[in-house]
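Bug #77: duplicate submission created two jobs. Keeping one. Sequence:
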Amino acid sequence: MKRRSFPLGTILMYAVLFGWSLTTIYALFWIVNNSFKVSREVMNNSFKLALDPVMVNYTNAFDRINIGKGYLNSLIMSGSTVLLVLLFGGLAAYVLSRFQFRGRKVIFSILYASLLIPAFATVVPVYELLIHWKLANTYGGLIFPQTAGNLTFAILVLAGYLSTIPKELEEAAFIDGCNRWTMFIKIFLPIGRPAFASASIFVFLWSYNDLFSALIFVSKENVRPIVLLLSEISSQYGTDFGLMATAVSLTVVPVLIIYLFIQKYIEKGLTEGAVKG
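Kept job's structure:
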């Protein structure tokens, strides 16, 4: 029987990936495990299994810090951001990928250059605009800046994918009587689903975890996202480490659920370079 051999490079690669996965999985397990302990036990035995789990931390998370409202605010803001980015980014990507016009390359250059501008450099003008438009401390005060901030990334990702769609498919749609809008909705949107899914998950993650913008643009309690509530736990309940672990665990849950549902589209959007017939 022929013995199967593995190159040294492959072994090292799998060893590194295995070690990296252990650190990531164990960190998540450590947080969830400590969420079922009281604060004193977390401080004294943080690496011990919670063999006698308690649920008081989860009760306090919803009663004392109103994490349910933070959930709702985050989902409203992040969900709205994703929808707006996919709508405007998808239309812009469609135009840039399927039309040839003067200034097209200049637009791409501007888009790439805008990725180099740090977010904190635009805080002051953006905040002044929000105050002028009376959007500060509202849902729109976080939705619109995050939409503008993530739009460039979405346009570049979607334009690169949509440009791989065969020209013959577009010509056949014209022969069947499709206009540009119908073609985008019924042809380009379904075919570009992997790219749209990839862009949506990244935009959702970035907007969901955007503590910097939340600290500046939305300070009122009724519109605070969940990441802003987490930053206040250390000051309000600095000694309750069990509550902190619980809040972090609850923050990660929606991200994991969304990723599990659309992970196959993310893989396709990141790896496929052409449309297969």
